[in-house]
Design goal:
The complex is a heterodimer. Chain A is mainly α. Chain A has helices at residues 4-26, 40-72, 82-88, 90-110, 113-138, 147-164, 168-187, 195-215, 217-220, 241-267, 270-280, 282-287, 292-318, 328-341, 346-362, 370-384, and strands at 27-30, 35-38, 226-227, 320-321. Chain A is globular and about 70 Å long. Chain A starts with a helix and ends in an 18-residue tail after the last helix. The chains are: A mainly alpha, B alpha/beta.
């Protein structure tokens, strides 16, 4: 299966990696003692590692090619992907789901406050991912400024609370509605745009919101942000910090459940189908009687709503907002979640959000290399599974025999 | 009686190029009308003007449903034109490749149904009823077109002929008065073309009118009640198949001018 050519190429790649990582892995400068340490042994590990990784990848690809050829020749049965086998067999996914639900419900009791806090963040990204999934994954509108709606929600709570003393539960729906309004505002000018052009305009929109928040001091208190935002209340009960984090955790669990419920129903409805059709072929979609304008605007508005609501929760969780939390990097991470999870797939987006947010946290052991590992995971994922963790699964129907 | 569809003096300019030049055309209720002409004559442009994808420079498009009032279609957005009763297929198949066959047809029902966001979330009784109706109507159309075995397949995985039929099914799902077919027989083998011939007749017998662009002359001559011939954006002839067959202008457009006359 492996030829000499493959081995040669693997050597070349190993060499290339050694050169690329040389400054990072070999040279260590200690500026205080003015000592340079040369860690030559690292070169060996990098070379050997990339050599073996490349070979493993090659073998995997070669085996896949062989399998595909056999399927084409009718020698082998085409096996549905693992994710579909799991999702289509209730005997497998029901216990898995039950275990998952139990795990998440018991989480704060099992783990420390610190872990719970991280999990809250991860759950927030689950909702953000599901929201952006409506816009990018389902309706096919590449939105690089999604974080703007997140900022709108967060600042809505911060400012409404500061000026009018409005509480968390009042602002939660207001934040969602406000973000939806902004979604429509963004939607109007970009109705005619698609693909790259749309991406650039939305990117600009995200930056505009951030720059306004940064520079309009009278309105948003500028880069220093707004602090002392109250945590979510529960009928005025006084809570300790630990208790309020646990409370926030369950609130987030409720929010995620609500989101999954709504997004799932939307996707399998008349409107959801129109979104999918819009993603597939805009011209055919119009010719089949779908109002392009309305469909796009609902996608933007309903996608933004979730960001707005999570924004409110974010402000309540950190009790402090400033523009630095809403940079382009955030949009990029949320987009990563959608692409990695599988465009339009709810289960995929949930898994991807948990992996992408928790992985860097638990890779802290590797300290400075964790972003490297993170990047490598992304690249490997896109090479081997470009359709995402769970590929888009469509609802199937049975014909009733009469 | 007024014709179902009447096109008067339709012109379409792209910058300095006149793609359609004062075109007149009529389709009567229950007729199969063919539009033929050499490549680049402006047939597809005509379809695009008719269905609202292009906004015509001049001219009128009038639709008179049986027993209804005449409506102007010019300047309407494509989705509203479809709602008025014009449904089309495309020359290069434009299905929704990553949706199932059934979903493709269900999209066609979109303009005849009303469920909104709240209905989708709460799934109230009306929405559920409507959804059932969409599925039932789509399934019966698919059955009629012989696609009921593949309803859960992705549209992209269908063989070519079946994709063509699916496009017709999707157009039929919009409950049209007139079905516009843009080269439905392109790329089909003789067997498939014969089946298409029968299918189009069946659709006509159900009371629909059909406007057809086609290059397969055998199909056009056997099907059509009336033929319009276009060249360079102008109508150069019209009439029954027999009249068209012997029309000197048509022969000239297709075969070129006789050397002796030049």
């Amino acid at each position: 299966m492996l030829t000499l050519k493959d081995l040669g190429k693997a050597c070349l790649i190993a060499l290339w990696f050694v050169v690329l990582t040389f400054p990072l892995m070999v040279i260590k400068v200690n500026p205080i003692d003015r000592i340079i340490t040369w860690r030559w042994h690292n070169m060996l590990w990098v070379g050997l590692g990339s050599f073996l990784c490349y070979l493993a990848g090659r073998i995997w690809l070669a085996r896949r090619d062989v399998r595909l050829r056999r399927i084409r020749q009718g020698l082998a049965e085409e096996k549905p992907p693992l994710s579909r086998r799991i999702l289509q067999n209730p005997a497998i996914w029901r216990p898995l789901l039950a275990a998952g639900v139990l795990f998440f419900l018991a989480f704060p009791a099992l783990f420390s406050t610190y872990q719970t806090n991280i999990m809250i963040t991860a759950l927030m990204y689950v909702v953000l991912g599901l929201g952006l999934n409506i816009v990018v994954g389902v309706a096919g509108l590449l939105d690089l400024g999604y974080v703007a709606f997140y900022a709108v929600g967060a600042y809505a709570y911060a400012l409404l609370n500061l000026h009018f003393g409005l509480g968390f539960w009042t602002v939660l729906p207001i934040g969602g509605l406000l973000a939806a309004t902004f979604g429509i505002l963004l939607g109007f000018p970009v109705l005619r745009l698609r693909g790259d052009y749309l991406a650039i305009v939305t990117l600009g929109f995200g930056e505009i919101i951030r720059l306004i928040l940064e520079n309009w001091n009278e309105f948003s208190h500028g880069p220093s942000g707004i602090s002392n935002i109250p945590r979510p209340g529960l009928f005025g009960i006084q809570m300790s910090l630990d208790q309020s984090i646990t409370y926030l955790y369950y609130l987030m669990i409720g929010m995620v459940t609500f989101t999954i419920f709504v997004v799932n129903r939307l996707q399998n409805s008349r409107i959801g189908r129109a979104w999918f059709a819009l993603r597939e072929d805009e011209i055919a979609c119009q010719a089949m009687g779908i109002d392009k304008t309305r469909t796009k605007l609902t996608a933007f508005a309903l996608g933004a709503t979730w960001a707005g609501m999570v924004g409110v929760i974010f402000a309540a969780k950190t009790t402090f907002v400033n523009p630095a939390s809403f940079t382009f990097l955030e949009s990029a991470i949320i987009l990563c979640i959608v692409v990695l999870g599988g465009m339009g797939s709810i289960v995929g987006v949930i898994i991807a959000a948990l992996v992408l947010i928790l992985l860097p946290e638990y890779l802290r052991a590797f300290s400075e290399y964790r972003m490297l590992v993170f990047g490598a995971v992304l690249v490997v994922m896109m090479v081997f599974r470009p359709q995402g963790i769970v590929a888009n699964i469509r609802k199937t129907y049975q014909v009733e025999e009469k | 009686m007024k014709p179902l569809l009447e096109v008067k003096g339709l012109s379409m300019d792209f910058g300095g190029i006149r793609a359609l030049d004062h075109l007149d055309l009529r389709v009567n209720q229950g007729e199969i009308v063919a539009l033929i002409g050499p490549n680049g004559a402006g047939k597809t442009t005509f379809f695009n003007c008719l269905t609202g994808l292009y906004r015509p420079t001049a001219g009128e498009l009038l639709l008179t449903p049986p027993g209804g009032r005449t409506k102007r279609l010019g300047g309407l957005k494509p989705n509203l034109v479809t709602r008025q009763g014009l449904a089309r297929t495309f020359q290069n198949i434009r299905l929704f490749p990553n949706m199932t066959v059934l979903e493709n047809v269900m999209i066609g029902r979109h303009c005849r149904t009303r469920a909104k966001v709240l209905g989708a979330i709460f799934r109230d009784r009306r929405t559920r009823k409507e959804e059932k109706e969409i599925v039932a109507a789509s399934l019966s159309i698919l059955k009629e077109l012989g696609l009921s075995d593949v309803i859960n397949e992705f549209a992209k995985n269908l063989p070519y002929g079946a994709q063509r039929r699916l496009e017709i099914a999707r157009a039929l799902a919009t409950d049209p008065l007139i079905l516009l077919l843009d080269e439905p027989a392109a790329g089909m083998n003789p067997q498939e073309t014969r089946e298409l011939d029968e299918l189009i007749c069946r659709i006509r017998d159900k009371g629909l009118s059909i406007l057809l662009i086609e290059h397969d002359m055998k199909l056009v001559m056997s099907l059509s009640d009336h033929i319009f011939v276009m060249d360079y954006g102008r109508k150069i002839a019209e009439g029954t198949p027999d009249e068209i067959r012997t029309d000197p202008a048509v022969i000239k457009a297709y075969l070129g001018e006789d050397m002796d006359d030049a």
